[in-house]
Amino acid sequence: MMRRLLRIVLALVALSGGLIAIPDYAVATAPEPQIVVVPAFTDPAAAAEAPLRELVNRVHRRGGLVMSVCSGAKVLAATGLLDGRRATSFWADLPGLRHDHPATTWLAGTRWVEDGSVLTTAGVSSGILGALHLVDRYAGPAEAARITARLHYPDAPVPGRHLSLADYPYGLHAVLPWFQPTYGLGLTDGVPETDTAAAAELYGGVGFTARVVPVGDHRIVTTAHGLRLVATPIGDAPHLDRLIVPGVTATTLTGAPTFLPRTAARPGDSAFDPVLRDIARTDGRATAVTAAKYIEYPVPDLPASGRPWRLILLTFALVTVVIAIAAGRWRIKRATQGIRAA
After folding, report:
1. CATH code for the domain of 129
2. 302 with 169, same domain?
3. Is 98 a domain residue?
4. Side-chain half-sphere CA neighbours of 163 within 13 A
């Protein structure tokens, strides 16, 4: 089963977590697909995305299958394709989707919903289980079982999700970017896409723990199933505080302290588990738990010893500055009052 990346015009596509992909086709020149998988867009209803929305509708009219992942359901909703159907999406988007698209029955607490020839999935990692369902449907249960055994993705239910005070490190990481470390994401030819996505999404996409820069031995890296990604040659990369190289147990890339998630994996781990444990060690357990929540991934056993020292020190520094400013103003006010009294 061939996979191809489409874009309106043949130009580089920025993905989550700092990744940049090279499309295989422009929409106007692509062979007519039987299945369209729609990810999240920055502005699903934008005029610039009209050709993609038309492609979705055209494939559906001709009897093809349309699948959305995470907030990609917003794109399907913008086409009207979900009117009168059941659907799901990323947990934080569901209240807004219910308000904006009341003609759709929006379901929470489920990994995926199939209604006719439309399949929608919950948060981004749920797309894996949605894709496995399609493999079972189109390639048979044996192939689906083979892939499932390789991925080790836990088929756990989606718990109720909401933000809480325990998620405060996530918000601080997002609004306090100063002194954020730079992680090189080492890309190698043949790397499994799930390993790459886990590292990019968790460190840079939803965790906000680091600025992620894709690096490699050469500028164009081809993944295990043909996705072409753009990398900065390691010799031209900016200063790196760490080098994360997913999908391998050894690497020739050098230049910073290196972490290989595969070497830290435990039996039965998926690509997400060692990355989440690493985030817990470097930025605190709460940060890792919230990152898992935002990709709707079951929280693995995490170390509790890590602390978000960058956030702690920044918060302390900001509080100190605020106190110093307030004290300075108080002293100036007192001095001014003394002069007037004299």
Report:
1. 3.40.50.880
2. yes
3. yes
4. 8
Residue 276 host element (H or E): helix 272-283
Q: Average of pLDDT values for 229-246? A: 96
10 vs 194, more confident? 194
Question: In the structure encoding, which two tokens stand for residue 327, read together?
Answer: 């004290």
Spatial contact of 111 and 130, defined as CB atoms under 8 Å apart: yes
Provide the phi-psi class of 179: left if phi over 0, else alpha when psi is between -120 and 50, else beta.
Answer: left
- Using a pLDDT cut of 70, give the percent of the chain over it: 80
Provide the residue range defining the domain that includes 66.
32-151
Same domain assignment for residues 169 and 303: yes
| Cβ atoms of residues 17 and 205 within 8 Å | yes
pLDDT confidence of residue 174? 62
Cα 46 to Cα 28, 80, 309, 327, distances in angstroms:
18, 14, 40, 49
Task: Judge if 172 and 285 occupy the same domain.
Answer: yes
* Cα distance between residue 135 and residue 151, in whole Å: 14
Q: Is the pLDDT of residue 166 over 80?
A: no
Please report how the helices 126-139 and 141-151 are oriented relative to each other, as an axis angle in degrees rounded to 10.
Answer: 150
The two three-digit tokens of residue 172, written as one number: 């601080």
Domain membership of residue 181 (yes or no) is yes
Please give the tally of structural domains in the chain. Answer: 2
Nearest to 15 by CA among 57, 69, 59, 58: 69
Does one domain contain both 244 and 127?
no
317: amino acid identity, one letter: A
pTM: 0.84
Asked whether 39 and 16 are in contact (CB, 8 A), the reply is no
- Reduced to 3 states (helix: H, G, I; strand: E, B; else coil), residue 166 is helix
User: Which of 109-123, 235-249, 279-293 is the least confident region?
Assistant: 279-293
Residue 2 is assigned to a structural domain of this protein: no
